[in-house]
Amino acid sequence: MADPKGFLKTSREEWPRRPVEERVRDWDEVYVPGALLPIISKQADRCMDCGIPFCHDACPLGNLIPEWNDLVSREDWRAASDRLHATNNFPEFTGRLCPAPCEAGCVLAINQPAVTIKNVEVAIADRAWEEGFAPPRPPDRLTGRTVAVIGSGPTGLAAAQQLTRAGHTVVVFERADRIGGLLRYGIPAFKMEKRHLDRRLEQMLAEGTKFRTSTAVGRDIGAAELRARYDAVVIATGATAWRELDVPGRELHGVHQAMEYLPLADRVCEGDLEVSPLSAAGKHVVIVGGGDTGADCLGTAVREGAASVTQLDIYPLPGAERDEDAEPWPTYPKIYRLSAAHEEARDLGTAPAADADVRLFAASTLRFTGDPDGQVRSLHLVEVDAQRRQVPGTGRTLPADLVLLALGFSGPDRADGLIDQLGLTLDGRGLIARDADFATGVPGVYAAGDAARGQSLIVWAIAEGRAVAAAVDHHLTGATRLPAPIGPYDRPMTA
């Protein structure tokens, strides 16, 4: 603890965003380049000597937050990088993309704004790359054992890196044409530029991890063949089966799933396309779903030049402060948050009929209507109460040339045949069943991440990857020194 009175003397200050008018004209990250380092040491000073750091429990990775806060305060960046990477393979991802349950669990957050843990984390990660503190770490020797990892999202990449560093020969199979899963084709570049992902992949290649793209296991290569060729298989395919909206008019042209829309925008940024076939340019856009994926669609539609954008959230407008009875500290509260995308759309006035920023809260979609050519033109909605019962007399109609469904995901996609070919058992939620060691009922086959846990946060995905790697290493060698931060049945803190 560098400054025992830091939390008393210094107010919370976050990484400033670029002006809205500037950032919506490009796909670069929304933050002011170079503006974080001048403020971050003082912000790290705000970390208290709290005795029991609940931020550890709030983060499934078990990040050593007070330790690296203290080191940043003293500007010992190398040691801070060592402590950060001790528990997290990809802190530059989590520092940009995680909603920070650690900050909700910060002891200072009981009666003050929390320490800017995310900002400190990303500052350490970026400094580590700049100063060469994150070199490749190839194993000293190989074990002769082979592992196939199916899926290259954060779970698959974390598992692959840990197992490679343990000396196993690891091959990651990805059905898309580039590695990264949703980090590549799902997260917009304005939230995380792909150079951060590419840099980590170069590190993993130098360590010895092998990648096979455009290979759908179950279709391009049989699951039984893969199982026969490798000593262990880790399924980390994610929960990519999207939830549907069963209302009249769903079949109209112009009604699409968010994950049909977002990857095309990412491909424009990658240089694969000049213009997205689903571009929002000049269109009235309605996004159904109030979560992070919906916000990603919002920021993308704004940058594409939509005529208007409105986001529907079935939940009521949350309050600005934590409800201490329903969601007491240190649980993660549902409060009103203004993401960069919401700030942009609010300031640009994209949805003049919305309740707050560009969102209509407590709004339920009734149906879509279209023109004689079958193109969607309107979305009909109604207000609902806390039990999602329709409120009489509250029906409204919004113009809609493009409707994006951002309703979350229900489980792993079975279209490739992987699950059926392996004969895997699914649980009552439609997720891959596994035991306390992450093992499925098929010998040598393990499941981790959203495919087995269900839709979750990036920190949980990386924690799952690290934990399944330890389980596989133990299976292959009879012992392991790899950390296992969570078990398969662990869940986020709740009241």
UniProtKB/TrEMBL annotation:
PROSITE patterns: 4FE4S_FER_2. Residues 38-69 form the 4Fe-4S ferredoxin-type domain. Gene3D superfamilies: Alpha-helical ferredoxin, FAD/NAD(P)-binding domain. Keywords: Amino-acid biosynthesis, Glutamate biosynthesis, Oxidoreductase. Pfam families: Fer4_20 (PF14691), Pyr_redox_2 (PF07992). Pathway: Amino-acid biosynthesis. InterPro entries: 4Fe4S_Fe-S-bd, DPD_II, FAD/NAD-bd_sf, FAD/NAD-binding_dom, Glut_synth_ssu1, Glutamate_Synthase, Helical_ferredxn. This is Glutamate synthase subunit beta.
